[in-house]
Amino acid sequence: LMVSVACDLICKLFPENIHLDSTVKYFCRLIDMMQINNIDISELYKEYFIFELMLQKEMGYALDLTSCAVCSKSENLIYISPKTGRAVCGIDGEAFNDKIFKIPKFILDFSNKADIDCLLNCAKISEHFLNKYYFRQYGKEITYMRNVLINNIAN
């Protein structure tokens, strides 16, 4: 299912015959991880969401998690603005924490573990930006199979 969803997103988001070096690299990493016996399923989902974030980067809409959108500091980055895709530090984001996304720790450092809540949060963030920068602009909806994949995280 994961490979099918990944292939579907690639086909929908990019025209034919375009070079997608990063996308291919992360797609191959995802396939390689699927071959590992007894892999922790949360690690596999984590790799899938890293792949989705790389797709968005290839589209030209990467998240900017280098510094706070409000104060420009690079410490204590806790949130992501749904409007800009930029990081927001804890102090500046507290007043808006019900309107902005919390950064999943593994997005800041791919070596961090990802629990179910972290994965579901990442799914929500990725879906928001896929919809914002592609699907809504073209009058389309995110694929049903991706929704099935996300629903499987909690089960």
Please tell me about this protein's structure.
The protein is mainly alpha-helical. The chain has seven helices and three strands. It has helices at residues 2-13, 21-34, 41-59, 90-93, 105-108, 116-135, 144-151, and strands spanning 77-80, 87-89, 101-102. It has a three-stranded antiparallel beta sheet with strand order 2-1-3. It starts with a helix and ends with a helix.
Topology overview:
Elements lengths: L1 H12 L7 H14 L6 H19 L17 E4 L6 E3 H4 L7 E2 L2 H4 L7 H20 L8 H8 L4
Antiparallel strand pairs: 1-2, 1-3
Helix pairs in contact: 1-3, 2-3, 3-6
Give the strand order, joined by hyphens, for the main sheet.
Answer: 2-1-3
Work out the number of β strands: 3
Mean pLDDT rating: 93
> Any low-confidence stretches, pLDDT <50, length ≥5?
none
- Largest sheet, if any? 3 strands, antiparallel
Kindly state the percentage of residues in helix.
Answer: 40-55%
What integer value in Å does the Rg equal?
16 Å
How far apart the termini lie comes to 15 Å
Principal-axis shape: globular
Run of helices and strands: HHHEEHEHHH
Total helical segments:
7
Q: How much strand?
A: 5-15%
Structural class: mainly alpha
Summarize the structure.
It is built from seven helices and three strands. It has helices spanning 2-13, 21-34, 41-59, 90-93, 105-108, 116-135, 144-151, and strands at 77-80, 87-89, 101-102.
Task: Give me some keywords for this one.
155 residues, globular, three-stranded antiparallel beta sheet
